[in-house]
């Protein structure tokens, strides 16, 4: 797997270097090139992620991790290039996938397992602390209470009538059942009295019934086998498949144990090998360095006639003596930088050097069956570390030796340069200093701040939701529709991919967050029920991030006044930085940017954060793994200009299309315990729910598939008619409402 990824990576790097020399200028050709690179990097990313999760060799894992993070960053760079080229967050690759003979599932970006695996203990400890604080404050029981639905008098009377009629119906059914059993007993009594006179006719009747039953059962079995063969029905032999999955899980966990064991041995070897090198090779390294520096002293005096000035420690000390380049080498590239500025050129990548470095270090080590660490590689690495440490000590000695040589040979004395120091100080004053955030809580511990935020309800427990649970299908006709000048509606699969790219990958990897195109804020827009809150919780679940709730309804009445607001924001951002990654969620964010505050909401002060948000975003640095996520179902009520200034990326989440609804109905019914049979027409349900959101569909399924209905499936299979009554009580998202999101 790793070998395949390395081969594909080598070919891709060659292709990128060729295109960089002669970049195309036609926009369609440029997009095709970027999209092809993007898809190929995604394939490599999938292979590397699996390899990093399963390989047990500790040094290989370090190398794969370096390339894995670099490939992640390169994917984000290419995505940014495509967005700037097309001025759209959504792209359609159906034609390219067809050319590359890939399935849409292979375009899904996996979430690296190491995001959670490497900090599992920290997350468990944090979960215990959060649960203890909530329990002590009495907030755990409050959060578990379900919201009560307000019911009118007419609805209450109707509910009582339905309940009473059902009770009477049950009594009537019991009475009719008793009458039926009585008739059956009387009939059986009469049959016992009558004796069968013709044995032949009885045998013919039995044969007729048996052959009819046997033939119908055979025909049904043949039809079922045909549908399984055509791939239109799942195979009934699920038990063997489950056993295979269980065995695969056992092997995976066994590899995890071997990984931990090898990592412990590797960490111990780092210490012991360095100690041995220091004892055995340390004196030789010291002598060699001193000889080299003395030789440099003599060479400089022979050329210039005087001894040189020893490089300062800030400049690197003696390390820069043997690494300097000539002025000609420095200026070779400068003459080529201004050529062809007007032509399109791909932005320089910060990740390709790391990919090339990792790719060059790949070696086929299939002979190493145990996959233990390589001591020679550790020695090579630790020699460099040891040389750097010894070099600092040698520099102190050689500075003094150079000073003595100057006094003895050239009769020079070291003159302190006070004037220069003053000038340097003055220059430092002239330079502009960036604004530093003042610490308003210097005397408080992190635990006390964390506890206060939890008790105030600003730091909440995210729901355990995987991004894969956000069900959606790929858009198969995106490119075709664009060719006939129709802009296709983005699919839920595209939304899921954007959440992975802009939210999960940067928060999960520090390297990617620091070097990749920085996304500080994200806005999720869509009608009620499309899964905006679910996606926020999924980002936190997949990255192990803290979730801060700064919605206007949640902060109403808390930390009043200007100083209170500043203190609240300071505490949230301080804890978010110290316990990163963190997600700051602003629900119903249109209220923060109201054009005009409704009279009912004036006391809540919904626009408290309007002026503070730009300041917060300005203070966020690349090393701060913090993401501000806003959600809104009514963006047209907000002042669009400040809203768009605050939110860097705006993702429109549409109602599900037919393909997504079909998959959603099928998967949610099966997850709820329902059985998909021929009696249940999923296609029909998918068609009649056009305009309904995912939340409404899930709500309908849960209301129908009660425990009693699940138990009765063997006697009475599910049908599409059962779900229609619940659907009729709901209002779908009409086309006019969906169009209003596009205009806004």
From TrEMBL:
Which Pfam families does this chain map to?
Answer: AAA (PF00004)
ATPase AAA-type core domain spans which residues? 522-639
Please give the Gene Ontology molecular function terms for this protein: ATP binding; ATP hydrolysis activity
Q: Which Gene3D superfamilies does this chain map to?
A: 1.10.8.60, P-loop containing nucleotide triphosphate hydrolases (3.40.50.300)
Say which domain of life the source belongs to: Eukaryota
Keywords assigned by UniProt, alphabetized: ATP-binding, Nucleotide-binding
Basic residues: compositionally biased ranges: 418-435
**Coiled-coil intervals, chain numbering:** none
Location of region: Disordered:
414-440
Point out the signal peptide segment.
none
By its UniProt entry, which InterPro entries does this protein fall under? ATPase_AAA_core (IPR003959), N-DRC_Component (IPR052267), P-loop_NTPase (IPR027417)
Q: What is this protein called?
A: IQ motif containing with AAA domain 1
Q: What species was this sequence derived from?
A: Vombatus ursinus
Its gene name is IQCA1
């Amino acid at each position: 797997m790793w070998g395949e990824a390395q081969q594909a990576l080598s070919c891709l790097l060659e292709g990128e270097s060729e295109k960089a020399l002669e970049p195309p200028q036609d926009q369609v050709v440029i997009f095709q090139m970027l999209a092809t690179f993007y898809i190929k990097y995604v394939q490599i990313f999938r292979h590397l992620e699996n390899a990093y999760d399963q390989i047990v060799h500790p040094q290989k894992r370090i190398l794969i991790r370096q390339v894995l993070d670099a490939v992640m960053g390169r994917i984000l760079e290419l995505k940014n290039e495509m967005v700037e080229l097309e001025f759209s967050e959504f792209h359609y690759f159906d034609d390219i996938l067809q050319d590359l003979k890939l399935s849409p599932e292979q375009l899904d970006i996996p979430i690296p397992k190491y995001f959670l695996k490497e900090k599992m203990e920290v997350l468990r400890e944090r979960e215990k602390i959060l649960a203890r604080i909530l329990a002590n404050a009495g907030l755990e029981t409050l959060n578990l209470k379900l919201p009560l639905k307000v019911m009118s008098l007419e609805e209450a009377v109707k509910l009582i009538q339905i309940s009473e009629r059902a009770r009477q119906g049950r009594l009537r059914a019991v009475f009719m059942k008793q009458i039926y059993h009585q008739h059956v007993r009387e009939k059986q009594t009469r049959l016992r009295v009558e004796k069968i006179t013709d044995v032949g006719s009885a045998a013919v009747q039995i044969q007729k019934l048996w052959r009819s039953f046997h033939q119908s059962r055979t025909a049904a079995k043949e039809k079922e086998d045909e549908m399984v063969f055509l791939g239109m029905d799942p195979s009934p032999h699920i038990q063997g498949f489950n056993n295979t999955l269980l065995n695969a899980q056992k092997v995976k966990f066994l590899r995890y144990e071997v990984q931990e064991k090898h990592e412990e041995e590797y960490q111990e070897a780092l210490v012991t090998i360095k100690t041995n090198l220091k004892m055995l090779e340390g004196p030789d390294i010291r002598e060699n360095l001193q000889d080299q520096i003395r030789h440099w002293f003599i060479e400089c005096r022979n050329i210039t006639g005087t001894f040189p000035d020893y490089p300062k420690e800030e400049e690197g000390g003696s390390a820069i003596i043997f690494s300097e380049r000539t002025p000609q080498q420095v200026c070779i590239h400068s003459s080529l930088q201004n050529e062809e500025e007007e032509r399109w050129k791909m932005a320089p990548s910060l990740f390709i050097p790391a990919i090339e470095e990792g790719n060059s270090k790949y070696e086929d080590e299939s002979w190493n069956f145990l996959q233990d660490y390589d001591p020679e590689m550790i020695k090579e690495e630790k020699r460099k570390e040891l040389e750097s440490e010894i070099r600092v000590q040698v520099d102190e000695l050689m500075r003094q030796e150079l000073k003595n040589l100057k006094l003895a040979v050239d009769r020079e004395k070291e003159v302190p340069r006070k004037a220069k120091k003053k000038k340097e100080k003055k220059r430092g004053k002239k330079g502009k200093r960036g604004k530093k955030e003042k610490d308003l809580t210097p005397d408080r511990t992190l635990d006390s701040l964390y506890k206060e935020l939890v008790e105030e309800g600003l730091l909440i427990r995210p729901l355990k939701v995987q991004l894969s649970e956000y069900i959606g299908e790929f858009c198969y006709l995106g490119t075709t529709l664009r060719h006939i000048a129709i802009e296709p509606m983005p699919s839920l699969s595209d939304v899921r991919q954007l959440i992975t790219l802009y939210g999960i990958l940067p928060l999960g990897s520090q390297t990617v967050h620091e070097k990749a195109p920085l996304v500080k804020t994200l806005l999720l827009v869509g009608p009620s029920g499309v899964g905006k809150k679910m996606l926020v919780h999924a980002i936190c679940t997949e990255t192990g991030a803290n979730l801060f709730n700064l919605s206007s309804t949640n902060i109403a009445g808390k930390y009043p006044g200007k100083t209170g607001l500043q203190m609240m924001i300071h505490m949230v951002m301080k804890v978010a930085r110290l316990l990163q990654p963190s997600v700051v969620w602003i629900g119903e964010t249109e209220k923060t940017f109201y054009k005009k505050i409704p009279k009912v909401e004036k006391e809540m002060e919904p626009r408290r954060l309007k002026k503070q948000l730009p300041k917060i975003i300005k203070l966020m640095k690349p090393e701060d793994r913090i993401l501000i996520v806003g959600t809104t179902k009514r963006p047209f009520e907000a002042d669009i200009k400040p809203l768009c200034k605050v939110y860097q990326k705006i993702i429109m989440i549409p109602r599900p299309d037919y393909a997504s609804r079909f998959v959603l109905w099928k998967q949610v019914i099966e997850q709820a315990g329902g059985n998909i049979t021929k009696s249940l027409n999923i296609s029909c349900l998918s068609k009649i729910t056009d305009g309904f959101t995912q939340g409404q569909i899930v709500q309908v399924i849960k209301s129908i598939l009660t425990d009693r209905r699940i138990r009765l499936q063997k006697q009475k299979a599910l049908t599409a008619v059962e779900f229609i009554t619940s659907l009729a009580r709901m209002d779908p998202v009409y086309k006019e409402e969906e169009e209003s999101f596009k205009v806004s």
